[in-house]
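debug: dumping io for the single-chain case to check the tokenizer round-trip. Nothing else runs in this session.
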Amino acid sequence: MSVVIVGGDSLGHIEKKLYERGVTKLVHVSGRKKSDNKRVVLNNQIAAVLIFTDYISHNLMEAVKSQARCFDIPVIFSKRSWSAVEQKLAVGGLVNA
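debug: decoded output
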């Protein structure tokens, strides 16, 4: 399963935890630079998009949501903490918690 993470300067231990739960490919875009708007390119190989709400601009969030809608990719909004991410993924049924 491929996951795109948007937001947050670093992932810390979240990256390791996602790989432990079945993610095979992880793409992280910090969302801090203007050029990051062009770096987020989704396709139908992506299983989910995880957006860290406390580390992303509104314009980038809207652009990512729009792209995800085109490919029918679920978008998960979470704070940048493993407990919040784990809870959101379990509710969405995307990762076995």
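debug: round-trip ok. The chain has a mean pLDDT of 84.
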